[in-house]
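Hey, resending since the last one bounced:
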Amino acid sequence: MTDRTEILAQLARLAAANAHRHLADRLCDAARLILNAAGAWIAVEEGTSRLTLSATDDRAGELEDLQDVLGQGPCLTASRDLAPVTTIVREQPDPRWPEFSRAAWQRVGPTTIQAVPMRPGGQQFGVLAAYFTDDGPTESDDAALFLAAAIGAALLRDPELTDDPESDGRWSARAEVHQATGMVVVQLRIQPEDALAILRAHAYAHDTSLAEVAHLVVTRQLDFRGEA
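The structure tokens again:
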């Protein structure tokens, strides 16, 4: 296992670079480099909502968005079970997440995903995930857990996130999903859980993101009373 002191030193050194970028983006890219991954992303949780706080590239964002839309996948399992999850996306679907496996295979092909809960101080905060296109993870689960906890602790102390969450567009996007869910509740007279499921289904069917569908609803470009 990589020495924890070395992990913290690498994280601090990498996060200090490119100071003009958002802290979450710097930490996410640092995680990618420390884990020797092709890409990485950070998803945080607020109640029953999830937000992709940062992704190093389009593939990383797409892998998280598929889980958000489908409501299943290794990141959700890692968050629920409070334990690391590693899986290989292959042509044969993983029975734990059959819809996610099929969709991920079609979108990105053979890929290994490592999802690790971020639990700074024992508080579940979200998930740090990475994907690999060659040999898979080189760091142990213990090292990845420590790295995830360190990143979670840094983000919990990020004033851009804790003092004024509405100032960051990514938090605003999640607020828009919440607003859109309420509008669909009114449109169709259904429960919030069902409204969110409809938003996810629409996003998946139209090959777009949940945030983009929510924006269409909030700006009244999409009204589900007119859906066939």
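The CA atoms of residues 63 and 104 lie 7 Å apart.

Sorry for the duplicate.
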